[in-house]
Specification:
By secondary structure, the chain is mostly helical. The protein has one domain. It is about 80% helix and about 0% strand. The protein is built from 6 helices and no strands. Helix 3 packs antiparallel against helix 4. The chain is globular and about 55 Å long. About 15% of the residues are buried.
Length: about 140
């Protein structure tokens, strides 16, 4: 079995890290529901629980598509990264008060999006997918 390029491995690690983060968010929102409801309201508690569950599902699906070397994995990854970035900024601007470290959040968000786009567009990524879709006949 061919090993994926290093950038693809880093990308998979990024997807799995965000999935693990959302597993922690889901567990925390379920465990601390009474405290969240008391101090932030039931609506915010429900939003955290639902969004974490959705992003766990998306993360597992994206990781699976990368591991299975599906030719549509790059498109799903771009869609998921865009949606996650939009969701992050909506949640940050609507639900969080105050909003500390705005410049840091912008820089990290842009850096991760650029890394994802660079990895998807790289020739090694395309070659990695082509080798699996069209294996050489010996």
């Amino acid at each position: 079995m061919n090993r994926p390029p290093f950038r693809v491995t880093l990308l998979l690690l990024l997807v799995l890290s965000l999935t693990a983060w959302n597993i922690l968010r889901l567990w925390t929102s379920l465990t601390w529901r009474p405290a969240l409801t008391e101090f932030a309201g039931a609506r915010i508690s429900a939003v955290i629980t639902i969004s974490a569950a959705v992003w766990i599902f998306v993360g597992i699906f994206v990781a699976w598509s990368i591991l299975q070397r599906k030719n549509w994995a790059a498109k799903i990854l771009v869609a998921a990264a865009s949606a996650y970035s939009i969701w992050y900024w909506v949640e940050r601007l609507v639900w969080q008060n105050p909003r500390p470290n705005g410049l840091f959040a912008v820089i990290v968000n842009l850096a991760l999006i650029l890394f994802i786009l660079f990895t998807i567009k790289s020739l090694s990524r395309e070659a990695y997918e082509r080798k699996i879709e069209h294996p050489a006949i010996e």
